[in-house]
Amino acid sequence: MSQLGIAIVGMGMGAAHLQHANAHEQAKVVAICDLDEKYVLDLQREHSVPFATTSYEDILARPDVQIVSIATPDWLHHEMTVAALRVGKHVLVEKPMALNVAECEDMVNEARRTGLKLMVGHICRFYPFFEQVKAWAEDGTLGTPYYVETSYLHNYETIPGVGGWRYDPEKRHPFVGGACHAVDLARWLVGDAVEVSAYGNHFNLPVQKWEDHIIANVKFAGGAIGRIMNSSGCPRPYDIECELWGTNGVIRGDNTTDEALLSLRQTNLHRWMRYPKEPMSKAIGNEFAHFVDCILNDTTPLIDGVDGAKTIATCWAVIESLANGGPVRVRNDF
Ligand SMILES: NC(=O)c1ccc[n+]([C@@H]2O[C@H](COP(=O)([O-])OP(=O)(O)OC[C@H]3O[C@@H](n4cnc5c(N)ncnc54)[C@H](O)[C@@H]3O)[C@@H](O)[C@H]2O)c1
Known about the structure:
The protein has 334 residues and is of the alpha/beta class. The protein folds into two domains: 4-123 and 284-303, NAD(P)-binding Rossmann-like Domain (Rossmann fold); 125-279 and 312-329, Dihydrodipicolinate Reductase, domain 2, CATH 3.30.360.10. The chain contains ten helices and 15 strands. It has helices spanning 13-20, 37-47, 56-61, 77-86, 101-114, 128-138, 174-177, 180-190, 283-297, 305-324, and strands spanning 4-9, 27-33, 51-53, 67-70, 90-94, 118-121, 145-153, 193-201, 213-220, 225-231, 239-246, 249-254, 259-264, 273-276, 328-329. The strands form two sheets. Strands 14-13-12-11-7-10-9-8-15 form a nine-stranded mixed beta sheet, with helices on one face. A six-stranded parallel beta sheet has the order 3-2-1-4-5-6, with helices on both faces. A hairpin with a 4-residue loop joins β9 (213-220) and β10 (225-231). The longest helix is centred in the C-terminal third of the chain and has 20 residues, at 305-324. It is globular. Nicotinamide-adenine-dinucleotide (NAD) is lined by residues 9-13, 33-36, 56, 71-74, 76, 94-95, 121, 123, 161-162, 177.
């Protein structure tokens, strides 16, 4: 069978896609797109990509493109995804799936109508350590999961995005744009969130209109409870952290260090065991390879549009709780 053609749009994070997207032997990057002409042509030369353009329409018109990877700023995800699905392309869209629940619903409906594959690039599901936590949650190693903590901690003082979009309140809320990582990870490990209650404050990042430190207490459908934290002006290094408590054990780790802590009921409960972790370097390649497999085998992507929409709905329930106080129910019917 001939290879599926991949186009990558938005060459910030998309440049990282470009380095790893050829991970599946039955797919290959055939086109790249960015508004910055010199930059996209430089990348084309460096990576020997057959076609480069500054126009998204050029990408949609190409018959050699079957998969569009959308890595433009968040506010373009909805419009670009729907346009690609309408002309028959499968779409891998970066996180967050879109700015709000209505946009996500539209994207889910378009994917359903066309029968094309839509996946959201929640990269945490491809980090080896978080994959290990998920496996131990499912195979009984940790017993029944009943508590989860996840955090997305990232200082955005020097990361405005091209043109400053990350500081524009119309184009990004930190709990949608950033904490969606932590929300998706928690949902993946213990199931859908059904109710949230949140607090936030604002001590660190005046350029951002919204609270820069937010915690949400969460009830999940299966009875687990948890806490999700987001900090966007914090005086500490970036990481995504995860702690999962089951009836037989607790695992605590992150996506940047090479060691996690593990406790199991049958061992000495007075000491943590040190668990060496694999690096995260192959995650993007594995994400692309998984999406290509889903297309070739007609299977559902690990994070399909419905899953992506539930994560955004959870984020917006947190934002509503921040604004109004008190618990807010989470929408899960997509
Ligand atoms: N999965 C992850 O861990 C991860 C990490 C970083 C960013 N992201 C996501 O990737 C997306 C982009 O973030 P970023 O950090 O690369 O932003 P950025 O502002 O650094 O880069 C965005 C790029 O998109 C280009 N662009 C903007 N509008 C365009 C258009 N209409 N057509 C073509 N190109 C266009 C810009 O010229 C720029 O090069 C965001 O949605 C972000 O959430 C994900």
